[in-house]
Design brief:
Elements lengths: L1 E9 L5 E6 L5 H7 L6 E10 L6 E6 L1 E2 L4 E2 L3 H12 L5 E4 L1
Parallel strand pairs: 4-7
Antiparallel strand pairs: 1-2, 1-3, 3-4, 5-6
Length: about 100
């Protein structure tokens, strides 16, 4: 199992994307590097690892204290799965 922090950002008309980063960096600092906290839609902690049923899993949970933004659970996990694995097929999306 591997963990870290994540952000889901709004990218204009192109939609939403996820970024996973090290736990030592603050959500606020990363959001500023990616264009600003006003574009953050979801934030929190993430666990990624092997699932006993589907092979891989992603679980997004918690919140960003520095941004005052909560995780959107499975909605964010779907986007993190795309960022980490390049697909969400056969990935167990935890809460």
């Amino acid at each position: 199992m591997s963990g870290g922090k994540y952000l889901v950002m709004k990218n204009g008309d192109l939609g939403e994307y996820a970024v996973v980063f090290n736990e030592t960096e603050s959500h606020l600092s990363m959001a500023r590097k990616l264009g600003g906290e006003q574009f953050v839609l979801g934030a929190g902690s993430v666990s990624v690892g092997e699932s006993s049923t589907n092979g891989q899993y992603v679980s997004c949970y918690g919140e960003s204290v520095t941004l005052k933004v909560k995780s959107r659970g499975r909605t964010d996990a779907f986007l993190v799965a795309w960022a980490v694995f390049g697909t969400s097929s056969d990935v167990d999306l935890g809460a």
